[in-house]
Design brief:
single chain; alpha/beta; TIM Barrel; nine-stranded mixed sheet; 7 helices; 9 strands; 38% helix; disordered N terminus; binds S-adenosylmethionine; binds the ligand Nc1nc2[nH]cc(C(=O)O)c2c(=O)[nH]1; binds iron/sulfur cluster; binds magnesium ion; iron; Aldolase_TIM; S-adenosyl-L-methionine; lyase; EC 4.3.99.3
């Protein structure tokens, strides 16, 4: 019996050691090989124009690639990742270091890529990491602030509903108010709630958004202030 137990614990220890080596290898592969480069459309230092951080200086890193297909998207040039160069994460981070203390990762849909490596390197440099995402892919990365802007065409994953700090719903038509309420019911209860009018529909829809927020004060208005300020 004792021999059997000894054998068993030897087996378990061996299994555990091998598992740790296996897990470490996977970690190394994802960190070093798969995501040492990311498709970058542009990076620019500006003022956050939307949501909770409106008005704060921020360095925007716009990763390329998106398959969600919003017909009113204001950055369709980002959709095809093949049109943009793959840049070393170390170079993206060193550029960010020269441009303030807050980075916003956007796109395209940034969560198409595993963002663990990029965000851990930014955090190592003491930079705050915020993300703008539709939530259509599983959450990766280490975040100080997550802005979830859900889209009907490709709904968010549970991982993003659970971790979001703000929910920013775009109002293009009347049905979008209903969709916004459905999304508010799915996001974690601490998330701040914003309605943002679709830029091309603001003359028609902004008065409705203003009335809606006055009648439903759990919501606040987010406007694309950078477009009024005529900055990037
Ligand atoms: C270009 S998207 C990139 C990040 C991510 N794909 C997403 O949709 O959240 C950045 C933000 O702009 C919003 N947005 C895009 N086009 C817009 C438009 N025409 N009017 C208002 N907001 C818009 C998105 O909903 C999102 O909150
Ligand atoms: N100034 C400024 N603020 C922004 N907030 C979210 C943006 C985005 O495109 O993700 C954006 C942007 O493109 N410019
Ligand atoms: S998910 Fe974001 S980047 Fe993709 S089409 Fe919609 S607004 Fe544009
Ligand atoms: Mg924008």
């Amino acid at each position: 019996m004792k021999e059997q137990l000894n054998g068993c614990s030897f087996f378990m220890k061996n299994f555990y050691d091998n598992y740790c080596i296996f897990a470490e290898n996977i970690k190394m592969t994802t960190t070093e090989t798969i995501v040492d480069k990311l498709p970058l459309m542009e990076a620019f230092y500006t003022i956050q124009g939307e949501g909770f951080y409106t008005g704060h200086a921020a360095y925007f890193i716009r990763l390329a690639g998106c398959d969600v297909g919003c017909h009113w998207c204001d950055v369709k040039e980002s959709w095809d990742e093949n049109l943009h160069p793959k840049i070393l994460v170390s170079d993206i981070v060193s550029q960010a270091e020269d441009n303030g203390k807050l980075v916003v990762i956007t796109g395209g849909e940034p969560l198409m890529w595993n963002l663990d490596h990029l965000t851990s390197k930014l955090k190592e440099k003491g930079i705050q990491t915020n993300i703008e995402t539709s939530g259509a892919y599983e959450l990766s990365g280490f975040w100080d602030w997550i802005c979830l802007s859900p889209k009907k065409k490709k709904l968010p994953t549970q991982s993003v509903y659970d971790a979001a700090n703000e929910l920013k719903c775009i109002i293009y038509n009347h049905h979008d108010f209903k969709f916004a309420e459905e999304q508010a019911a799915k996001v974690n209860k601490n998330a701040k709630l914003y309605l943002q009018v679709e830029w091309g529909k603001k003359e028609e829809m902004l008065p409705l958004v203003i009335d809606y927020v006055k009648n439903n004060p759990k919501w606040a208005i987010s406007t694309q202030t950078h477009k009024y300020l005529d900055i990037p």
